[in-house]
Amino acid sequence: MIITSKDNPTIKTAHALLTQSRQRKKLGQTVLEGTHLIDAYLNANLLPKNIIVSESGLQNDEIVVLLNRLEKLNRLESIKTLTISDNLYKEIRTLGESLPMMAIIDTPNLPLNQVINTDCLIINGVQDNGNLGTLLRTASAIGFSTVICTTGTAQAYNPKTLRAGMGANFSLNIYENVSLDEIFDFVKVPMFATSSHTDKIIYEQNLTKPLALIMGHEGQGVQAELLDKCQKIALPQPNGQESLNVGVAGSVCLYEILRQRMYL
User: Is 213 found in the same domain as 246?
Assistant: First the structure.
């Protein structure tokens, strides 16, 4: 059966999840657009709630492989699969010209209620989904497994963040909407934060022990209350630019941590 109406309940839900942060919070769900994210989700041994594919997508080899894979998984757990018209898919998608397949998934809701004594990335008020996704992707790449997003940070499971992260979310424990008090209560490793008000260059610091790296808002940086609890570090900028993009700066810091531990 080919669905053509936007009034179909699953289609209405998918469209709302793609476009409304309020609905993502209310339903505790989000949407993965495109085959790459769905493949990464399955590789993490996770199962979607629903699959939506366009009529023409059924002829695509990459989509067929994923559908066959899902069919095998479906023997163990019910995954509802809908085929919709090409026009309807174009009407609800947000990704543009990509392979026409999407999945509705449940989003994790992890409470920060245990001591963190291993490496973690704390993201304090980053607003841009692309920057957030870049930080998640880099943290996963260097081997961090814990990310803490403070209240006021962009949604880690916003479809735009998910696309920028390229599947990194599924290899991380991501705590969202965490208060500063919760960080002070549970994060028990030294905290380092980038700041323009220090001359302590990151390359001169010992980053070989477990730590928390804190990256702040694109404009205001790390909140003062949190910054006061941190060892402040800076990236050298001999050409005099005001600051680096937070996604770039965070990636440089994370790879300096990796370098000190593996390549000295």
Answer: yes
